[in-house]
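Consider a typical record:
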Amino acid sequence: MSIALASRFARRELRGGLRGFRIFLACLALGVAAIAAVGTVRASIEAGLAREGAALLGGDAELELTYRFASEQERAWMAQNAEQVSEVADFRSMAVVGDERGLTQVKAVDTFYPLIGEVGLEPALPIALALGEQSVLPGAVMERVLKDRLGLEIGGVFKLGTQEFRLTAVLVDEPDGAGGGFGLGPRIIVLRDALKGSGLLESGTLFSSKYRLRLPENSNLDALSKEADEAFAQSGLRWRDGRNGAPGVAQFVDRLGAFLVLVGLSGLAVGGVGVSAAVNSYLKGKTSVIATLRTLGAERAVIFQTYFIQIGVLSLLGIAIGLALGAAAPLALAPLITERLPIPAAFAIYPKPLFEAAVYGVFTALIFTTWPLSRTENIRAATLFRDAGQSGARLPAVRYIIATAALVAALLALASWFSGTTFLTLWTAGGIMGALVLLVLAAHLIRFVARKIAPWARGRASLRWALGSISGPREEAVSVVLSLGLGLSVLAAVGQIDGNLRGAIARDLPSVAPSYFFVDIQKDQMPSYLERLNNEPAVSRIDSAPMLRGIITQINGKPASEIAGDHWVLEGDRGITYSTELPDNTRLLDGTWWAPDYAGPPLVSFAAEEAEEMNIALGDTVTVNILGRDFTATVSSFREVDFSTAGIGFIMSMNPSALSGAPHSFISTVYATPESEARILRDLSTTFPNITAIRVGDAIERVASVLAGLAAAVSYGAAATLLTGFLVLIGASAAGEQARTFEAAILRTLGATRRSILTSFALRAAILGGCAGAVALGAGILGGWAVSTFIMETSYEVIWSNALTIVLGGILATMLSGLAFAWRPLTVRPAQILRSQE
């Protein structure tokens, strides 16, 4: 019965329209829209990857090998199960034109390439024709950025190793490019047969071979994958198929999307503050209605249900608006987004992200409206008539506190499930809750300090009025600090993280990093290579080591994934070296190094940090597949490996007798003065054309560009959070307009000028904005430090330029919103206001 009566009352209340709920709807809609838009873009990319999976992979399935080509047995299995097989070799090299040199990622293909999709060339011509013989020399295509860097024109000649090629076209679209992962250089495509004798695909050089399969229709991919794993489990062969054509891209998109959704949740939390404030303000304006209902015998439950239903309907309206915006925005911006994405995306309306956004919106509305709604039960009618709802219990009944806590726990559980990152979700939630608590405490501290220092402002009327207003009984300080502070906290944290990431790249690495990595140095080339560099005065240091790569397949005789889970060391092949003595720059943390003349069973020294994460202990055995052969070694020691210096670092180092007989090359780092780098590169690449040089500065720039894109994406999410906070701030200012009107009327009656009153309003806004900015800055610095230290594992220092911007932004935003609602109180005649007061 009470529900029916409450529904009737709520329906009548809703006839009044949306007055007082515009900010409520805007906050909720904006937060839901941000989450829905991020989810829609992510779903669109995932759908595009699924639809174009085979094209991105280059075939229905792919078998990949590390630093070797397939054996006869492996080729026979492929031929038996596939209608067609295409072989591709992928490696880094140096493209040379006269004295110009450029690092490039070479794809050496056969005449079947590509099995699926088409290569886009400029001028437009078939890839087979472009790679065929051109005036005696084999043809090649390359990306425009490398063509321009080398100063090449169509028809020009360049070298890869010792082999010359003629450029026939610019590579515009590589159908399987996104599936190849991160490359350090622009792409060149040539025929593999044209590289015979070039010295680039010799035994021991660093390359990967990929075999793309065109399978019969209705092939059972699961069965074929299992059969391949069983047949070649010990050969290091890895299977992929069109269902996940670009796993690295898919994982990246998934993680970035999850992170952005969590940033969006921060925006919803800010919006929730506005929702709570709007509900509280609305209910204060309904005290006479509530009092009348209580006087006529309405039960507490009926009153609660009346406004719960009313606000619930409005919440659903706000969520619906947010879902419509979140679904429409990606569709409207689809051409722009597609143009910027290097991967396919199928933009459409996807139910799953919209459902998730709706769930987030519902829980946010419930969490932030239950508290103010519940207080209506505890206020007596007589009290409401006397002081317009200022009295009553500050805290709601225990059952509502428990219900709010349960809703928060349920929201965290759902966010963990939806995002798939429990750790990051809990960190984000902890940060938001910590920031809210800090901001509430700071708001009360601001009021306390304002009350204490107000007497010292004698003679400065405007300042004293401002301090008195801040320390007064109204909740303006709490509303402003909460609404603006949380948005600024998110933005401050993002700014500090972004600044420290950029600083780590631009500041830390160049002071310790080598000038070049040289790879694919053959063993018989090492004496001449070292002699050339040792006689170079500009070279301050040379580090060299033998280089093999292998895949960890087993730990203690069991599949490695059973022991180490999905640790990054198991994702693909890893560098392995060997040495007789413990290198000078290496520190042994546990165990013992082998004797110089040791010739027993293989031993391995493992990186200590990674070993701990992978549950590897001294005496354990690790099986590594190198060039199709298994090497099982006993862990004899753990050593410290610092990958942050950009120098040579290996997860595994074995005793020489275990690996020295396997085909391999050497890797070397060279530390030289900047002005000598070009000359050293030119001399070495001329003398040793097969050697590939990777300039560390260029690699850092590629990483920096990726990080810049990440930072931009996260900043957009933080900006949405800040916009929500500004809307909440406007709502708080609008809600306080009536109080400021009465205040201005009193002051003008006592002789104050409009200018002094306006100055008082401006000082009040500036003080609150500055305090909100300062508190947000503290929370942002703390959050940035936590993320940089524990998640990014980078050094941290405060970026003061970002910090100053946050504080100034807080002052400016508060003044703009406060002064926007200050003009009307100054223009109203005091007599009109005072007569209307009882």
